[in-house]
Amino acid sequence: MILVPLQEPEAARRNIRLLLLRDDLTHPELPGNKWRKLKYNLTEAQQLGHDTLLTFGGAFSNHIAAVAAAGRLTGLRTIGIIRGEETPPLNPTLARAAADGMTLRYLDRETYRRKQDPAFLAELLRETGPAYIIPEGGSNALALPGCAELVTELAAETTFDYLCVACGTGGTLAGLLTALAPHQQAVGIAALKNGGFLRTDVDALTQAATGHTFPNYDLRTDYHLGGYARFSLELLDFIHAFQTRHGVLLDPVYTGKLLFGVLDLLRQDYFAAGSTVVAVHTGGLQGWTGFRQRFGHRSAWWPEGV
Ligand SMILES: Cc1ncc(COP(=O)(O)O)c(C=O)c1O
Predict the structure, then answer these.
(1) Looking at the DSSP assignment, which residues form a beta bridge with residue 83?
(2) What is the pLDDT of residue 131?
(3) 13 CA to middle of ligand 1, Å?
(4) 14-31 pLDDT, tens per residue?
(5) What's the gap in Å between 86 CA and the centre of ligand 1?
(6) Which domain of life is it from (predicted)?
(7) What residues flank ligand 1, with Cβ below 6 Å?
(8) What's the whole-number mean pLDDT along residues 212-240?
(9) Residue (of 61, 8, 298) closest to 169 by Cα position
(10) What percent of the chain has pLDDT over 90?
């Protein structure tokens, strides 16, 4: 586990130890929360005798990329149900997924909303054949124990008071929560504009996985910077400056907002003076190529190699 101390004047002024947990480096092909969330799902799929994984995601989804890679690594077939119309040629995320062997199927946005409806899923499986279904973002009860392991590994390295993570579906935050000590606080930074649903979803996930919910977390829905996967020059400038200061590249959909939010919360004295704050780099760097393809004309700066 790599923990990078972030020398930020705002932290030093408050005697706060700010650490970046480089979970993006934990697994070479399933970075960050992807390996954490998939680990026990892959075991379960294999134990149940499945040879196919079926999952859901948007056209630039890190989760789709990760499931496709997991299929290549495990020998399981993969089917990706992609939200929206097919728009050839494939974008870099889907091209990579297809190269990893994933079969891509597209659903219009209206039908896609039924992605959790059991009747719809049964109908889908009749068309595709039997498969182990992993929900969008990989967030189900089995995603939680893998994420909980991050906390155990971290606690073996250092004491800490706050654990901050970016949220999409809330599965990662839910998993971290299940392993925190009661005096430790999780802070979720929502990447989506209308993140109000997250508390319900996080509570439902911890309830499903452990039989109860956890009070020691906060959700911040005010750092979406325009919404999910939207372009924000302010965010891009922040990511650029952060890379210049710390030599670490964040992603433009999740972890950029996480660090943007954490540093802003620091300035607002949200974290107790003298405490240790850990922010988790959950990966997502595969998203840069597609992001640049969509918004290349809107910024002069882009990270090297994307
Ligand atoms: C890089 C990255 N970080 C954070 C998240 C948020 O994870 P979750 O959907 O479990 O809230 C995601 C989405 O899966 C992601 O791809």
Answers:
(1) 107
(2) 98
(3) 31
(4) 999 999 999 999 998 899
(5) 24
(6) Bacteria
(7) 32-33, 62-63, 137, 139, 166-173, 251, 254-255, 282-284
(8) 95
(9) 61
(10) 95
- Give residue 279's pLDDT: 98
Amino acid in position 243: Q
Tell me which of 167, 224, 260 to substitute to probe ligand 1's pocket, judged by most ligand atoms within 8 Å of the beta carbon.
167
Contact 191, 166 (CB under 8 A): yes
Average pLDDT taken over every residue of the chain = 96
Tell me the fold of 33-138.
Answer: Rossmann fold (3.40.50)
**pLDDT reported for residue 194:** 84
- Give the DSSP letter string of 95-133: HHHHHTTPEEEEE-HHHHTTTT-HHHHHHHHHHH-S-EE
Contact 158, 1 (CB under 8 A): no
Q: Helix, strand, coil shares of the chain as percentages rounded to 5? A: 45, 15, 40
Q: Say yes or no: do domains 3-30+141-298 and 33-138 share a fold.
A: yes
What is the four-CA torsion angle of 208, 110, 103, 39, rounded to 10 degrees?
-20
In the chain, where are the structural domains located? 3-30+141-298, 33-138
Residues 65-120 pLDDT 10s: 999 999 999 999 999 999 999 989 999 999 999 999 999 999 999 999 999 999 99
Enter the CATH code of domain 3-30+141-298. Answer: 3.40.50.1100
**How many separate helices (H) and strands (E) can be counted in the chain?**
12, 10
Minimal CA–CA distance to 253: which of 95, 114, 63, 85? 63
Task: Count CA atoms closer than 13 A to 183's CA, side-chain side.
Answer: 6
Specify the DSSP class assigned to residue 50: -
Kindly state the helix (H) or strand (E) to which residue 248 belongs, with its residue range.
none
